[in-house]
Amino acid sequence: MSVGEVADVLISDYGVYNALNLDGGGSTTLAMENPLTHTRSLVNVSADNPAGRMVASSLAVFADADTVPPSTTASVSPSPNVNGWNNRGVDVTLTAVDNPGGAVMGIQVASAGAHAEASTLVSGNTTSLTISEEGTTTVTYFATDFVANVEQVRSLIVHVDETRPVIDGMPSGTCVLWPPNGSWRRVATVTASDALAGVDPSSFQVSIASSEGTDEDTAVRPDGQGRLEVLLRARRAGSGGDRTYVITATVEDRAGNATRVTSTCVVPHDERK
User: Fold this and answer.
1) Running DSSP on this structure, what letter comes out for residue 153?
2) Residue 208 bridge partners (DSSP)
3) Rounded to an integer, what distance in angstroms lies between the CA atom of residue 187 and that of residue 230?
4) What pLDDT shows up at residue 214?
5) From CA 47, how far away is CA 26, in angstroms rounded?
6) 33 pLDDT higher than 80
7) What percent of the chain has pLDDT over 90?
8) Which terminus has fewer CB within 10 Å in the chain: N or C?
């Protein structure tokens, strides 16, 4: 290729806008210093002298030493809720970048806790792992570039809870209020618990619906220990059949898992029921 043809290829195919043409063959020797060991060696093979030709002129290119370590960011999909919990498995993606002129060699990653993986060096600037186990997992990671700059160890904590909270203390299926003398009866002390994320106290509620539609005969009150007491009045309308109270308890844990439990209490029309 002629000099002009070489220039056309450099411009059109490689986007070169500044270039230096050196005489080839045995007149040019290219050498480079290893950035890690600082050992200098020939890169090309001379056409007439493998050891290179002694010349009186040279062109040297110097680059500042790279002392900046890479930086890694972690992303979680799906993102945790405002309480920092996920109610299903998540994918953690690690992405590392280096300063201009540098390049990421790999990312060292490990995890402990609910999801445990031994420390592993993954080549390249990105890696990912899936965490589906319930509980708390701590992911540790750092990146390294090709000139041995090492990032400080970073960590990410992932919380996963897929189990619904538990509601206890609701009335049994044989809840009967008799006699219908208008007295108040405590029919339940309702509790809510969750082993992992914990209960969201603001979501714990008990509601009561009556078949006779009178709210003054029902009451729900906290007992000061996180429980809700359910009180019903043992009375019914003089005419008509049984009076039925439908009691519904609902709660969510801090991961967003919800539980709903329903029970009934009856004020019978007569003692035979």
Assistant:
1) P
2) 247
3) 6
4) 72
5) 5
6) yes
7) 70
8) N
C-alpha atoms less than 13 angstroms from C-alpha of 59 in its C-beta half-sphere: 7
CA distances (Å), 136 to each of 4, 93, 141, in order? 64, 17, 17
- Residue 62 burial by Cβ neighbours in a 10 Å radius (0-12, 13-18, 19+): exposed
What residues have CB less than 8 Å from 14, skipping those under 6 apart?
none
Q: Where are the domains of the chain?
A: 1-62, 71-160, 166-267
- On whether the CB atoms of residues 171 and 263 are closer than 8 A, the answer is yes
Nearest to 273 by CA among 247, 246, 242, 236: 242
Q: Which CATH class is domain 166-267?
A: mainly beta
pLDDT value for 129 = 97
CA atoms within 13 A on the CB side of 221: 9
The two counts, helices (H) then strands (E), for the chain are 1, 17
Q: Contact, 269 vs 236, CB < 8 A? A: yes
> Residue 264 is encoded by which pair of tokens?
């009934």
Structure tokens at 45: 């093979």
Query: What's the chain's length in residues?
Result: 273
Task: Work out the widest C-alpha separation in the chain, in whole angstroms.
Answer: 120
Chain segment 149-205, per-residue pLDDT in tens: 999 999 999 999 999 999 999 998 789 999 999 999 999 999 999 999 999 999 999
Task: Report the top-level CATH class of 71-160.
Answer: mainly beta
Average the pLDDT over 242-265 and give the result: 97
Domains 71-160 and 166-267 share a fold: yes
Mean pLDDT across the stretch 20-29?
75
